[in-house]
Amino acid sequence: MDERKTTSTGLKHAVLSPNETLAQSIALIAPTAAPLLTVPLVFASAGSGSWLAFLISTVTVVLVAFNVNQFARMSASPGSLYTYIAAHMHPMLGVAAGWSLLIAYIGTAMAICSGLTNYVNVILKDLTGLQVFPVLISAACIGVAALLAYCDVKISARLMLGLEAVSVTLISFVAISLLVRHGFHPDMSQLRLHGVTPEKLRMGLVLAIFCLVGFESATSLGSEASRPLESIPRAVTWSAILTGAFFVFCAYTEVLGFQGEAVPLDRNLAPLHFLARKAGLPSFVGVAIDLGGIVSFFSCVLACITAAARILFLMGRHGAVHSRLGEAHESWQTPHVAVLLTALAAFLPMAFLTLFGIAPFDVYGLAGSLATFGFLTAYILISIAAPIYLRSLGRLTIQATIVSVLAILAMGIALQGSLYPVPATPYSLLPYIYAALLASGFLWSILLNARSPLTSDRIHDDSNALAD
Which of 216, 238, 366, 424 is most buried, judged by most C-beta within 10 A? Predict the structure, then answer.
């Protein structure tokens, strides 16, 4: 197929293979981040029930994936969940979903880039005793990711696929080596949930769900994926299942590996590095895992910019944001203006916070928590929209209704867990900041919409043209 062929949007047409489409969702989940950063946090809450928290979270996001795929099997566009909700519920509800996803993807890019910055300086300090000014590392990360997203979506997808494959393989090698050294008999203290209470499990579950957000981002490649009505639903489902299973496995082996250690899992700054040594592996394996973590974080930043730019691009074409954002580059056939704006939106707040003395690891926590509100908003809206859409087609079933209700309840529990108990400042301010950002974007879209009304027919036309 000629890679220069474009859709009516000006983006490349059908240039991404199913595996490259899957890479977008997996990269945004950032599977390396959970074993390095989140499993210890889940352990601090859920203890020996950490594996169960990840298992339940996997089932939860698969329920949401089921709702997403009700739309992904029927239409394709660069607009992700924004398009589905706008076309089948109400255009302005779709705009709300679009802004919530933009906050989610840009916030995730900020968080993961800050995590990468922190991780790079930790490694440099251990190896050389020196550190680099954090803003310089963040600028390099965002700049290279923006350049790749600006130039060629196919190169970006292949790079994301390769980086994640290497990183996950290294972590899996350490985990399997640890099991071999321990013996393959089950750890009964974990299986019997020793010391785990429902409240501890609930708190761990909230953190575990956050590890899997972003699984839906392949839906932003509706223009560039080959056979999008097949490859995108497959990517949405399998990214959730594969990464979820990987997280369950990592949680089980990490908790197992730290049993009896003086420094517990939730207080170890480099858990996989420690476990590699405990498994009897050469020291270079730990270094390779550290490097794998860095490239995986970069891959996630690239995936965030790719997904956010395409939502912004289609919203620009529909008049929900400035029309300049809906332009595609004539040569590269990418949403170049939207890519640049997305990269700046991720970098500038992060640089501002860093320059005012906030540590990169703290920026990671703040931006990640803010992004979570955006994901949960979009997931709740798409789970409400799915049965409405199926009913309009005369295909609503009891099973689909149950799945939708369960997904809404699960996301509601995660949202409630983010709000109560009320966290300490500045985390207690994040819901208000999120609401202000969402309201500001929504108001801007309403003002633009008054001049060029956004209609469901217009959105349907874009989706049908791409699906064809």
Answer: 216
